Amino acid sequence: MRRRISLPLKLFLIVFAFVLSCIILISQLSYRYVQKEIRTNDIYYMNQILDKVDQYLTVNFSSFQTILFSVETSVNANIDNTEVIKKQLRELYELNSNYVSNIYLIKSDLSILGGSTTTRIFDEPLSDRKPLFDAADKNRRTTYVSDPYKSKYSGWTVTMVRYLNGSPFPMAIAVDLDLNAIEETLFKINKKEQMNLALITPSGKIIAGFSENRGPLNIQDHTFSIGETSAEQILDTTGTSLQLHTKEGLPVSILKKPTEKFNWSIISINDESRLEAALSRLETFYIGLLVAGFLLSLFISFLIAKYIRNPLYALKTKMKRVEQGDLTTTVTIKRNDEFGDLSRAFDRMLQQIVELIRRGELHNELERKLEIQVLQSQINPHFLYNTLGSISNVIRLGQIEKVDVVIASLIASLEYGIADASEKVSLRQELQNVADYIAIQNIRYNRHFNLIERIEDGLMDFPVFRMLLQPIVENSIFHGYNGGGIEGPITIHAYRKGDIVMIEVIDQGEGIPADRIQHILTTDPSDLEVKRKRIGLHNIHGRIRLHYGEQFGLQIISIPKEITRVRAVFPVGLFEGDA
């Protein structure tokens, strides 16, 4: 009879194989990814260093060109006065002696007028200047950069030479570069960044670098090789990076970059042993991770095989449906054990959750409506109080003929203000209500508060709260214009900015001190007088935030004695059906 494999054992084997396979796969992919990233980041970092070196050389090239042009200008201006030319050459050399070895003029007989102390004394003709003079004479409109060579007075150097145009007799301007200064800069980078840098000519000669950190290099006669590969072969290879081995078989990585201004290449040669050691440590870590994964797979598989059964899968299915929003799921587990009890308890819990959600939604909706009504009821009495005061002042001042105008405006404002608070109105209607309000205030204070409307096209029908703007305008008159003590314009500016709409009330009155702005939109139960004066702004701010969220509401920007801007911020989505 064939032996039957129990379900727990099957489950154990399946889970063990699955978990272990996942760990092995993830470990291998992670190792390869990290290995690739380490190499990529290392190459990227070294390329950044090469770019910085190239920028340094470009700046130096510009400096050398400037020196050549300065000498050319000076010589042409003093062509008949040799002593002046010598003095200016000396001054230029002393000014730039940190990175040049000499600045001088080469005559056609190969004698010179030199800037350095030595060449001011020893100015005899030298045959090694002939290639420089000939190159300058051949290319009279460009600057010629020589290959590195051993100069009698400047040592190992590179010369930049330019023909002196405009001179009555053939002459060339020359600058010997101080390669020691350039090499010292490269050594600093080598030491700090643990790199091995050098400048190389197209023929493979070392201009500067490598001397203090030869590493895997074989340096002879100002050139080098790595293993059996010469410098010229390295420069002739395509691409910017390559891998080579030394005679001892050690791997090295090479990066090369042509310079922008000079006909040179920047070479970085780096021993791969440091990177290989890091990767070796990483490999050891991942082997340990695989061992830990093997043990973890055994442990997890044992637990799952012991405790997971079909009832738990059924319960998990029910929970998944609830997670997706289906609170009416009816997956039933007909068991008389703990799983059955858990399933029935879960069903009862779902019913209670559904009922609580329903009750919560009803409660939140009722609370929201009540809060809006309370906020609206706070604004209307505040406005009515001030308007009745306006009528009283008109009668007290004996301006009986204006009473009808004030009452007509008051009737229009009251009809507008006592309507349903939850009903939104268009910006056009709010502007009309503000116009009625300002008409009352102009009569009350015997002032002229000019209402200026700057409304972006299409925003006249934008839906806003009823009684949004009037309390803000009231604050502008009462606080900005000292309760009618002074007069000025009141501007209402509405515009879109991205996905929001901004409606601003702007006055040019007294303004608000900076230390008070942050408290205006918050309540302070201990300061009843301040609270009474700013009830309109505070409640408008609360209405907007209650409807649209904490990111909307009022913003106040003020420059005392210049301008105050109260900005109401709404979502532009109101146009999509919230009118």
UniProtKB/TrEMBL annotation:
Its placement in the membrane is given as: Multi-pass membrane protein
Q: Which domain of life is it from?
A: Bacteria
**What Gene3D superfamilies does the entry give?**
6.10.340.10, Histidine kinase-like ATPase, C-terminal domain (3.30.565.10), PAS domain (3.30.450.20)
> Per UniProt, what is one GO molecular function of this protein?
phosphorelay sensor kinase activity
Sorted UniProt keywords: ATP-binding, Cell membrane, Kinase, Membrane, Nucleotide-binding, Phosphoprotein, Transferase, Transmembrane, Transmembrane helix, Two-component regulatory system
Q: Which residues cross the membrane?
A: 12-31, 285-308
> Where is it predominantly found?
membrane
Q: Where is the HAMP domain?
A: 306-358
A Gene Ontology cellular component where this protein is annotated is: plasma membrane
Task: Spell out the subcellular localization from the entry.
Answer: Cell membrane
InterPro entries (UniProt xref) = Bact_2-comp_sensor_kinase, HAMP_dom, HATPase_C_sf, HATPase_dom, Sig_transdc_His_kin_internal
- Entries under SMART domains matching the protein: HAMP, HATPase_c
Which PANTHER family does the entry link to? SENSOR HISTIDINE KINASE YPDA (PTHR34220), SENSOR PROTEIN KINASE HPTS (PTHR34220:SF11)
Task: Return the protein name.
Answer: Two-component sensor histidine kinase
**Lineage of producing organism:** Bacteria, Bacillati, Bacillota, Bacilli, Bacillales
